[in-house]
Amino acid sequence: MRMRRLLDALYDGAAALAALCLVMTLLAVLGSIVDRYITLPIKGLDMYAGYFMAGTGFLSLAHTLTRGEHIRVSLLLSRLGPKGSHRMELWSYSVALLLAGALAFYSARLVWQSWDFHDISTGNDATPLWIPQLGMAAGTLLLWIALLDGWLQTLRGRAPQAQPDELVRSE
Prior knowledge:
Layout: H1 2-37, H2 45-59, H3 61-66, H4 74-116, H5 130-155, H6 165-170
Helix pairs in contact: 1-2, 2-5, 4-5
């Protein structure tokens, strides 16, 4: 119970950061538009918009998964019956865990290498690249944790994902 609250808080916190990144993307784009008419002292607003957009996408992955909003082939699962559906869920989670684990590992390695080599953006913002890459590494690690959580719940015979309201209404 305590672990569930901690994990949900972690997913919700990442979703809040993703929402903040989305707002920052909007502000960077608006700033870039204003910069065309009035020269602003901030350089590289287009680059920052891209960094924040990537942060939005990656930081929202775990929250989206745990809320049942990722694309699922429920039509196929319903045709397999309870046993087959359970096996397919475990297989799907296992493959996703491997892929997300590799993505998280290589994302974290990229952050480390960018920091170690003092890699900076080639744009006129000259941002150290490890800073915007942190969002990708954190998001993929959280996705791996959420997939492991779902895999363990499925292994125990519990339904790991909530069905979104619109899916329940449309089926």
